[in-house]
Specification:
This protein has 2 domains: about 55 residues, Arc Repressor Mutant, subunit A; about 180 residues, Rossmann fold (3-Layer(aba) Sandwich). With about 250 residues, it is an alpha/beta fold. It has an 8-stranded mixed beta sheet with strand order 6-5-4-9-12-14-15-16, sandwiched between helices. The chain is elongated and about 55 Å long. It has 10 helices and 16 strands. The mean pLDDT is about 90. This is ArsR family transcriptional regulator. GO terms for molecular function: DNA binding; DNA-binding transcription factor activity. It comes from Streptomyces swartbergensis. InterPro entries: ArsR-like_HTH, Carb_Metab_HTH_regulators, DeoR-like_C, DeoR_HTH, NagB/RpiA_transferase-like, Tscrpt_reg_HTH_DeoR_CS, Tscrpt_reg_HTH_GntR, WH-like_DNA-bd_sf.
Length: about 250
């Protein structure tokens, strides 16, 4: 069994059944305990689970923004730098929630742009930059994840149009579907997609295949995917068949 498939099955088992021992996972997947331990180390490094004595657990709900912000910073910065280079002065940019969008906001200082966001950390980052026209969407505050959601946010988005949308994700399925872990964020993301002229998905390598139970959109809704490592063949083919350009930290993936 391929490692990618094992990882999917491990996460599925932990989400459906709660904490599990290495021995139990080994029996379920038909592989050695040593293989399971290596898989758990990798999944923990990617921020997808927490190892505990003798096994692992997937925490319920979203991790707080502050915790996620410390994960894979170099990878997110590489993606953010490439994404920022797409934007020309004078254009409008819609930034999604999440930590990669925040890293992108840091790359926009000193530019002459309009930035629209429901991401409170993006707002705080750019609030004192006088060259940037800053639009903060209304809505209910999700304090732990520093975002605004709900029908007010969606109504605001219906009145706006941006040259670029930079979208975050919990994971991308092999078929190119963009997923999210939190149902309440999905309507806002969909409203952002409708408001964006060009839709760019920001997804580091840990998001392939990633996780998430709620579908945000299909590959046909994307124009570009920016990542930091080559995308697996199956997912890349699905994206390219839908006309999506795949950009890997400064180069277009063949």
């Amino acid at each position: 069994m391929l490692a990618e498939r094992r990882h999917q099955l491990i996460l599925r088992a932990l989400r459906s059944g709660g904490p599990a021992a290495v021995t139990d996972l080994s029996e379920q997947l038909g592989v050695s305990p040593a293989t399971i331990r290596r898989d758990l180390v990798k999944l923990e490094e990617d921020g997808l689970l927490t190892r505990v004595h003798g096994g692992a657990v997937v925490e319920e709900g979203d991790q707080p923004f502050a915790e996620v912000a410390e994960m894979r910073v170099a990878e997110k910065d590489a993606i953010a730098e490439r994404a920022a280079a797409m934007v020309k002065d004078g254009q409008s940019v819609l930034l999604d929630i999440g930590t990669t969008a925040y890293r992108l906001a840091r790359q926009l200082h000193g530019r002459r742009l309009t930035v629209i966001t429901s991401n409170l950390v993006v707002y705080e980052e750019l609030a004192d930059d006088e060259g940037i026209e800053l639009v903060l969407l209304g809505g209910m505050v999700r304090r732990e994840y520093r975002s605004l959601v709900g029908f007010l946010t969606e109504d605001n988005l219906r009145q706006l149009h941006a040259d670029w949308l930079f979208l975050g994700t919990s994971g991308v399925r092999p078929g190119g579907q963009v997923m999210d872990t939190t149902v309440v964020e999905v309507p806002v993301k969909r409203a952002m997609i409708k408001a964006g002229e060009k839709v760019v998905l920001l997804a580091d390598a840990a998001k392939f295949p990633g996780h998430g139970m709620a579908k945000v959109c299909g590959p046909e809704d994307l124009d570009v995917v920016v990542t930091n490592e080559p995308v697996d063949t199956v997912t890349r083919t699905s994206l390219q068949e839908a006309g999506v350009e795949v950009v890997v930290a400064g180069k277009v993936q063949e």
